[in-house]
């Protein structure tokens, strides 16, 4: 809470002092900031940050394109009525076999489509 009060108080003081200083002081501060911005060390830093950001943007773009292609492929498969891939033959035969030591017969899967 104290931090918020200090922030608001600082903003109010800055506003009052800024309005008293007027346009001339604003222009002076603006020229000083532009002078610093245009120095060689600052511009080198800007170039480094710009290059790093562009690399991350390119990575993000590639990820979004891959995700979009995957989603499109999934939607078109579903729309065309394609069935998901069947389990491997070894998995099906293992499911149909009784567990070792079991005396029960394998049970056929239940009919779930509503027809008998």
TrEMBL record:
| Composition skew (Low complexity), residue ranges | 82-103
Q: Where is this region: Disordered?
A: 75-116
Q: What is this protein called?
A: YtxH-like protein
Source organism (scientific name): Leucobacter luti
